[in-house]
Design goal:
Blueprint: H1 6-15, E1 23-29, E2 34-35, E3 40-47, E4 54-59, E5 62-66, E6 81-88, E7 94-101, E8 110-117, E9 126-132, E10 134-135, E11 140-154, E12 157-164, E13 175-184, E14 189-194, E15 197-198, E16 203-211, E17 218-230, E18 239-246, E19 251-258, E20 279-282, E21 293-304, E22 311-316, E23 326-327, E24 330-332, E25 338-340, E26 350-359, E27 364-375, E28 382-390, E29 393-401, H2 406-429
Parallel strand pairs: 2-10
Antiparallel strand pairs: 1-3, 3-7, 4-5, 4-8, 6-7, 8-9, 11-12, 11-13, 13-17, 14-15, 14-18, 16-17, 18-19, 20-21, 21-27, 22-23, 22-28, 24-25, 26-27, 28-29
């Protein structure tokens, strides 16, 4: 005969005088929300239990521990979950599961349920639940602004597009879109404020992805909040701030910039006198010889850090007040036509490329732009204009490339020397 443990026997005898009306009680201490790394304890009790009743502790519908058993997968894979079971007979028959979780992580958050049940139809499942919230810091937070620009690309149809703008380049009555994005394992709430005043009426988009097994799923939440604003002179000098908040202040993260709006903001004329337009310096006008290879025309462009380069391009033999640029990354052929090319391509005579920007000082960034002539021909003689634009305006600078032909000059020199020699011989003969 199979042996019966003394604990089971005591409970069996006590249950003979037991009563119906089981109760499930689930307590947790401490109550959440809790920070990552903290510890908590759940106590699941099945009160007024009968012999044969089953007590189970679950999380999000996945069994963690059944009295008396072992911690179940996937919880068993981590040593952070420790569970024990016991029975008490006084003052009433009670099954007890105690679960300790240490080093809490966001994936431990969820709905924990204490369930007492048996195989008899007379006793339905009795449950009690508690929600555990575990917070975690937002992984990344970003704040950006875009200026709304009206344009007409189709006759008679006015369109509104967005153009990048540094936070301190808005003029009075400029319309802009402010975007704050936060990413992390726990969904944050986002607030955007100017001078401490919360901006309302925005739109929020939330995406959620998960990985791992049921019961211990790990989540990644992406929350993007966008709000439109018509900037006024009263916004000038105020702090534009994006704040993410996890579980009512358990974790917060902020990012901010200082606004400049109005007369103090840089001019946005296309080529006007603003001191904040790109400042361009190029190397001396090159004078290469036919046949020389890898001749470079270099231009250095300095801009304020908060007003980075938005676009640049080169033009060929265009001396107008507003030269039409060719797209960066395209090449000029001998006849001045623009064709696509690769930086390392040998198919075309001229290449364009850019060095990574470097900080000159705390306020200024320098960009370096190059035209590389793979092999000089006489057709490369001409005017090459670089055109650079940032949020303050547009500036350009022209460079003259003059190609010389050593072979012609050398031939002329030889001919001259031969002529002098023949003249000398002729004079000698007729002395």
């Amino acid at each position: 005969m199979e042996k019966i443990s003394s604990l089971t026997l005591v409970f069996l005898l006590a249950s003979l005088g037991g009563t119906f009306g089981q109760t499930a009680i689930l307590t947790t201490s401490p109550l959440g929300p809790l920070r990552s790394g903290a510890s908590t304890q759940f106590v699941c009790k099945g009160v007024s239990a009968d012999f044969g009743d089953v007590l189970n502790l679950e999380k999000d519908g996945k069994s963690i521990y059944t009295y008396i058993g072992a911690v179940q997968p996937p919880f068993a894979a981590t040593t952070r979950y420790v569970a024990v079971g016991k029975a008490e007979t006084s003052p009433t028959n009670t099954l007890i599961i105690t679960l300790d979780i240490t080093g809490l992580k966001p994936e431990d958050a969820g709905n924990y349920t204490c369930i007492i049940s048996d195989s008899s139809a007379a006793h339905a499942k009795i449950v009690d639940s508690k929600m555990l919230e575990v917070g975690a810091q937002v992984v990344s937070l970003s704040l950006s602004t875009m200026k709304l620009v009206s344009s007409t690309t189709v006759p008679g149809v006015n369109q509104t597009t967005m153009a990048p703008a540094a936070p301190n380049t808005f003029d009075v009555n400029d319309n802009g879109v402010i975007t704050c994005s936060a990413h992390g394992p726990v969904a944050p709430t986002i607030a955007v404020s100017i001078g401490g005043d919360i901006l309302t009426g925005g739109e929020i988009a939330v995406t959620k992805s998960s990985s791992g097994e049921d019961g211990l799923k790990m989540y990644n939440h992406s929350v993007v909040y966008t709000v439109t604003r018509t900037f006024t002179v009263s916004d000038n000098g105020k702090e534009l701030k994006c704040t993410s908040d996890v579980l009512g202040g358990l974790y917060t993260k902020q990012q901010s910039v200082t606004l400049q709006v109005g007369s103090e903001a840089p001019s946005t004329t296309t080529s006007g006198p603003s001191p904040y337009v790109p400042q361009i310096e190029c190397n001396n006008d090159p004078k290469p010889d036919i046949g020389e290879t890898n001749i470079e025309l270099k231009c250095s462009v300095e801009v304020r850090k908060e007003m980075p380069v938005l676009s640049m391009g080169w033009s060929f033999n265009d001396t107008s007040d507003a030269p039409v640029e060719m797209v960066s990354g395209q090449c000029l052929t001998d006849d001045g036509m623009v064709k696509d090319c690769l930086k390392e391509s040998d198919d075309y005579d001229i290449q364009t490329y850019t060095r990574d920007p470097v900080d000159v000082n705390a306020n200024t960034t320098e960009y370096s732009y190059y035209l590389r002539f793979q092999k000089i021909t006489k057709e490369h003689t001409g005017i090459y204009t670089i055109k650079v634009t940032n949020s303050a305006g547009t500036n350009w600078k022209s460079n003259v490339v003059t190609v010389s032909d050593k072979s012609v000059s050398s031939t002329a020199a030889i001919c001259a020397n031969v002529a002098v020699l023949l003249l000398a011989v002729f004079l000698t003969m007729f002395r």
